[in-house]
Specification:
The chain has helices at 40-52, 58-61, 75-87, 110-121; strands at 2-14, 19-21, 24-26, 31-32, 90-100, 128-133, 142-153. It is of the alpha+beta class. It has a single domain, classed as 2-C-methyl-D-erythritol 2,4-cyclodiphosphate synthase (60s Ribosomal Protein L30, Chain: A, 2-Layer Sandwich), CATH 3.30.1330.
């Protein structure tokens, strides 16, 4: 059986935080605001997985009203979503992400980000697609990300 999940996340820039995208620290003068590290890519992937398996979303499981998650690395959230996914008997077929931002440019970091996501998830980076898109005249003072994930029941070779 196959399941599809869609995850979306966005955060405005924050001058007082480092920028993390896909678990990679990006050389940029601003980070992203958020209760955790604000990593929109890992948040969107987490939500996509949680949606595909019919779980509550990232904001419900890791509430920004809970001080335990303040400043937490987003890989923690993704690993918990993966644990729930595996518990339900699913594995990742592929992930497709679109990062929407005027800046920073994503292309110099794409391979590092894909490798980082693959390492966090324990999958080959060839299963991850990552595209950077400019908002083309729409003002975006931060970074947005949308991800789609396809899951299948473990052991399914079709």
């Amino acid at each position: 059986m196959y399941r599809v999940g869609l995850g979306t996340d966005s955060h405005p820039f924050d001058d007082n935080k480092p920028l993390y995208l896909g678990g990679v620290r990006i050389d940029f003068p601003k980070g992203l605001a958020g209760h955790s590290d604000g990593d929109v890519i890992l948040h969107a992937i987490t939500d996509a997985i949680l949606g595909a398996i019919g779980e509550k979303d990232i904001g419900e499981i890791f509430s920004d009203k809970d001080d335990r998650w303040k400043g937490e690395r987003s890989s923690t959230f993704l690993r918990e979503a993966l644990r729930k996914m595996e518990e339900k008997g699913y594995e990742v077929c592929n992930i497709d992400c679109v990062i929407i931002a005027d800046e920073p440019k994503i292309s110099p970091y794409k391979d590092r980000i894909k490798e980082s996501i693959g390492n966090i998830m324990g999958i080959d980076s060839s299963l991850i697609s990552l595209k950077g898109k400019r908002p083309e005249g729409i003002v975006v003072e931060g970074v947005m990300c949308q991800c789609v994930v396809l899951l299948r029941t473990c052991g399914n070779e079709s």
